């Protein structure tokens, strides 16, 4: 399983997306969580079929909290189809808050 997770913002709305490729040979389940700066979370549950085709999972788009000034983050957790055994965790990087430096 491969996954890459990010936070997207457009038109005053924000959401999380994870890109995945399931090479495990078995169906899997993704729980994608958008962590908002106001402490709330938004989740999406996606069933991932077996196969090597790339796919995406997204949370619902919601109005951006705080006008976009505070950073969002996202985490995708991949488990077996029953959700009993976690296999992978993929997280977004926080946006730099000092003009582009990663400190």
Topology of helices and strands:
Elements: E1 2-10, E2 13-21, E3 28-35, E4 41-48, E5 54-58, E6 62-63, E7 73-80, E8 86-91
Antiparallel strand pairs: 1-2, 2-5, 2-6, 3-4, 3-7, 7-8
Please characterize this protein's 3D structure.
- The chain has 103 residues and is an all-beta fold.
- The protein has one domain: Immunoglobulins (Immunoglobulin-like, Sandwich), CATH 2.60.40.10.
- Helices cover 0% and strands 53% of the residues.
- The protein is built from no helices and eight strands.
- The chain has strands at 2-10, 13-21, 28-35, 41-48, 54-58, 62-63, 73-80, 86-91.
- The strands form two sheets. Strands 1, 2, 5 and 6 form a four-stranded antiparallel sheet that branches. The chain has a four-stranded antiparallel sheet with strand order 4-3-7-8, with no helix packed on it.
- The termini are far apart.
Can you give keywords for this protein?
mainly beta; Immunoglobulin-like; disordered C terminus; four-stranded antiparallel sheet; 103 residues; 0% helix
Mean of the pLDDT scores? 86
CATH class designation: Mainly Beta
| Beginning-to-end CA distance, first to last residue | 30 Å
Largest sheet: 4 strands, antiparallel
What is the C-alpha radius of gyration, as a whole number of Å? Answer: 14 Å
Q: Give me the number of helical elements.
A: 0
Structural class by secondary-structure content: mainly beta
Which overall shape is indicated by the principal axes computed on the Cα atoms? elongated
Mind telling me the CATH superfamily name?
Immunoglobulins
Order of helices and strands: EEEEEEEE
The low-pLDDT segments are 95-103
């Amino acid at each position: 399983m491969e996954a890459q997770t990010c936070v997207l913002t457009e038109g005053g709305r924000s959401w999380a997306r994870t890109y995945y490729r399931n090479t495990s040979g078995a169906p899997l389940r993704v729980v994608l969580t958008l962590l908002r700066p106001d402490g709330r979370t938004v989740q999406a549950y996606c069933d991932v079929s077996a196969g090597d085709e790339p796919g995406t999972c997204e949370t619902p788009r919601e109005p951006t909290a705080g006008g976009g000034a505070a950073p969002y983050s996202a985490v995708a957790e991949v488990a077996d189809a029953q959700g009993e055994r976690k296999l992978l965790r993929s997280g977004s990087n926080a946006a730099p808050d000092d003009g582009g430096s990663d400190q």
